[in-house]
């Protein structure tokens, strides 16, 4: 199967700033792939390299098998980009902006018109087709940049923080829209700071930090590696408690009548814990399981990565500053 994106040891330096530091990543055709990472992690730089807005310093980058530099036009024609910043021609009716964009991709005028209309219908702002970009509401602007990305009928749609700062209703609408596009076969690369967005939409998520890949996994796999919390409320403050000597228990805390057990996949421990409490004559009145969010997992993973770096530096005899 062709990979939609294939990058190896990708590097990009802006003067002294190393925005990408050996990033390697594969995105399969048809995938809904998420890119998560803190501010400045290199996500936008990665996208800019893929679409030819930034020139890589080293490594390789291919889109559907086309090198993003030596086969620029073919690679670029396969991609629709909805960028974080609005960089739209503000003086023309939006339908014309879309027609120009289609023309840039070599689409003849009649077909360009048809595609422009279709793209505006897809994102739900067809009735605004003769309006200038400046006169659209904030939410319509977000929809419009997605329409612009769609007008070339791309196989890969890149969405750079498409829902930053939008209200809940529009966010859900946009989620429905991109999910539908993915169901119809478009590969999607999404960068986001919203963990919920990645959890709901993505097949796999790459976590990027300091221009490098920290982890690639499904949202479920990431959560499975983090500790959840089992919270048990007892009928009264317990006099004595069982050992809770199960595998993967990170901590047990008792606060008044509440017992909190943190463990990897805490939910699956619940039957054993309840049985042991019953044997100890403790009456349980409530049980809840709080699953770790991807955000907590993310913090944990980047912390682990930092620790590994520090250990490596220590082994190399470098001075470590705590
Ligand atoms: N044109 C540029 N010139 C100089 N430095 C840049 C340029 N673009 C990005 N950088 C730097 O490269 C690093 C990575 O930035 P980038 O925008 O790729 O991160 P990001 O993960 O997209 O961040 P955010 O989540 O805030 O959008 C940062 O240190 C940034 O300051």
TrEMBL record:
A single Gene Ontology molecular function, please? ATP binding
Write one Pfam family the protein is assigned to. Answer: ABC_tran
Sorted alphabetically, which InterPro entries does this protein's record hold? AAA+_ATPase (IPR003593), ABC_transporter-like_ATP-bd (IPR003439), ABC_transporter-like_CS (IPR017871), ABC_transporter_ATP-binding (IPR050763), P-loop_NTPase (IPR027417)
Q: Which domain of life is it from?
A: Archaea
Limits of the ABC transporter domain: 5-235
Task: Specify residue ranges for compositional bias: Acidic residues.
Answer: 305-316
Return the SMART domains for the record. AAA (SM00382)
Coiled-coil annotated spans:
none
The alphabetical list of record keywords is:
ATP-binding, Nucleotide-binding, Transport
Name the segments for region: Disordered: 303-322
Q: What is the designated name of this protein?
A: ATP-binding cassette domain-containing protein
């Amino acid at each position: 199967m062709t990979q939609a994106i294939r990058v190896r040891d990708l590097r990009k330096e802006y003067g002294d700033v190393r925005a990408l530091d050996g990033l390697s990543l594969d995105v399969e055709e048809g995938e809904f792939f998420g890119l998560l990472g803190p501010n400045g992690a290199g996500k936008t730089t990665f996208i800019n390299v893929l679409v030819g807005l930034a020139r890589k310093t080293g490594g390789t980058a291919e889109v559907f098998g086309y090198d993003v530099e030596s086969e620029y036009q073919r690679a670029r024609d396969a991609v629709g980009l909805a960028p974080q910043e609005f960089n739209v021609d503000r003086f023309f009716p939006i339908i014309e902006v879309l027609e120009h964009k289609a023309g840039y991709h070599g689409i003849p005028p009649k077909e360009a018109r048809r595609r422009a209309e279709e793209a505006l219908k897809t994102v739900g702002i067809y009735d605004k087709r003769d309006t200038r970009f400046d006169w659209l509401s904030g939410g319509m602007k977000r929809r419009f940049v997605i329409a612009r990305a769609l007008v070339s009928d791309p196989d890969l749609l890149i969405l750079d923080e498409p829902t930053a700062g939008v209200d809940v209703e529009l966010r859900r609408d946009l989620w429905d829209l991109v999910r539908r596009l993915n169901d119809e076969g478009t590969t999607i690369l999404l960068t986001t700071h919203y963990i919920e967005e990645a959890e709901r939409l993505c097949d796999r998520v790459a976590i990027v930090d300091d221009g490098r890949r920290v982890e690639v996994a499904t949202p479920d796999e990431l959560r499975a590696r983090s500790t959840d919390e089992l919270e048990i409320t007892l009928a009264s403050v317990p006099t004595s408690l069982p050992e809770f000597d199960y595998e993967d228990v990170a901590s047990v805390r008792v606060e008044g009548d509440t017992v909190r057990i943190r463990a990897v996949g805490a939910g699956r421990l619940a039957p054993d814990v309840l049985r042991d409490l019953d044997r100890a004559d403790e009456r349980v009145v409530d049980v809840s399981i709080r699953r770790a969010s991807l955000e907590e997992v993310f913090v944990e993973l980047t912390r682990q990565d930092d620790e590994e770096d520090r250990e490596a530096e220590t082994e190399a005899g470098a001075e470590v500053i705590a």
